[in-house]
Amino acid sequence: MKKKLIIGIVLLGGSGIAHAQMWKSSVQFRQAFLNRINIVRQQGCNCGGTYMPPAPPLVWNDNLEVSASRHARDMDRLHYFSHTSQDGRTMGDRIGAAGYKFEGLKAYTIGENIAFGQESIEEVNDGWFKSPGHCKNLMNAAFKEIGISEYNTYWVEDFGGRIGFSPSEQQMIRSGAKIVVKHASENH
């Protein structure tokens, strides 16, 4: 019997470095995930003992898919299972390096679910929705975008949410006004 593991983490705030090669999933893979997740987000659900109200649908983001794909392949290649890469990179490091940036934004939120051993989209998604922490990531209304990858039954689901400054805030910034932006800390 294969061991099945799932782990979730949320990080608010973040930084990034550079963009590189992308592994593209099929349209069917993307749609299967988006359909399953967005049906639940539209209805709302219970995550453990916490009711999560309906949330807007997630859209696919290629940069988040690149981050997810790199991490799934790295875990497979080096035979580990963790949100922290063997070289010490965090989820925020990987997502930023894949090109998902926060510079010039009013708000930036990222999160990640990982799993190992599940054989299908249905099985991994059901496991994440049955786990309170993973379910809360999936239902988090601050997340607007998602990228998912599977490699040799290592599954990585990266989430993001970015909010830009309004036109009036942009004008204030251009005129030299200071705008205070509060950054939230890591939340597990």
From TrEMBL:
<feature type="signal peptide">
    <location>
        <begin position="1"/>
        <end position="20"/>
    </location>
</feature>
<protein>
    <submittedName>
        <fullName>CAP domain-containing protein</fullName>
    </submittedName>
</protein>
<dbReference type="InterPro" id="IPR035940">
    <property type="entry name" value="CAP_sf"/>
</dbReference>
<keyword id="KW-0732">Signal</keyword>
<dbReference type="InterPro" id="IPR014044">
    <property type="entry name" value="CAP_dom"/>
</dbReference>
<dbReference type="Pfam" id="PF00188">
    <property type="entry name" value="CAP"/>
</dbReference>
<feature type="domain" description="SCP">
    <location>
        <begin position="36"/>
        <end position="149"/>
    </location>
</feature>
